[in-house]
Amino acid sequence: FFFFSSRRRHTRCREVSWARRCVQETATQSTWGLLFIKIRDMKFFIHILVLLFSLACSQSTCPKFSCAATSSPETEDVCSTKTGNDFSLSKCKNSLSQKCDFNFDAQMSVCVDVRIKAKTLLPGEPCAASFYCMSGLCSFKYCAGAKSGDSCLIDQECNPGSYCSPRGKCEDLLKAGDACGNSVGKCKNELACANSICVPIGSLEDGAVSDNELACKSLFVMIDNSGATKCHNKPKLVGGNTPQPCTYGTYCSYQFDGNTDKLTMPCKCGANSAGASYCHPGIGNLDGDVSKFLSFAGKAFTTPCHISNPWFCLRRLSDNPNEYYIAYTAHGNITAIEQYTNNDDCVKANVNRDYWLAYAGANPTPNKSNNSSGGSIQLGTGVSIFLVLLLIELALLISVSYTHLRAHETREDLVCRLLLEKKKK
Hints:
By secondary structure, the chain is α+β, with helices and mostly antiparallel strands. Helices cover 28% and strands 16% of the residues. Strand 8 (162-164) and strand 9 (170-172) form a beta hairpin. The relative contact order is 0.11.
């Protein structure tokens, strides 16, 4: 869930998730300068320059997403096809039990079963059989992982509340005030690693030194004139407080309340039929979403969820499901609201499914929209597809099919089942 970059720096601006191309372009400029200085062979230099230019211009426009007609029987599992830079999206055969395994880089995406498959559940998640657990062990209806002190290779092998340390051992997640970092350790879910110290998410005021946006109340940092990275008040888009249309390849301008600092961020592609691109409104125009996320993170992330997938765990354990859906939607708006602006129904169902399912849960009123041209995904009867999917997923978390149980029954189980079936007859 750590959606902000934690340690990258550059000379013009600090990267946040909704403006990551700023860092990439600055790095590219530096690379070109080094090439010009070091390469003496002009013929070789020309070849390199042409290659770099072709790579830089490989996507000069944003992709278009169109809703295709019903798939033919022989391609009924195909939910997305890519032609050039554009996507044609089709409904999955069974929208209640399947979702599109959409991939921006793939020429073709297919429908996949949303039901739990073998070896997909993390330690601590509810299970009906060892068959479903990554660890291969379902104990007392929960997947069991490696305990603190046990050997490991990756975080997913360790139990909730622990991680796989650089020493190859499962160790407890670090507490507030503990030293942290890639070579030291990982903080608990409700903490952020800032300046190599674990601190509560959203706890640092503007002006505090921090190399992690997640530690700041503003969820934003900038590098000042002295070169120090500090929490900074939130930027606002110049010319609007909602996602604004822009020309892909250009930059959007931002300003800050109370000072004269300026910031430019690249125009970002949306996911719509027109191939339109937008300027993010700036998190200064999303104060409500920032408050919702920080409020949720301050209490819900203290739940002992696995570090590899806390959002899924929180959805299952949250005492207030509506609060969870509101926080998840707020998280989506903060990080990439332009991706959810003017989405067609097929984009909602195939490309941005998780966001719109959460939005439907947070806004149960049919056809209610937000500033990203909303409306929940609806069934023909007016029942939210989100609610049906949620019921299916909950049922699958606590049950296994009769056929699967028979595949694992013992000789004693078989005798009991046959006697019961005979008695029923």
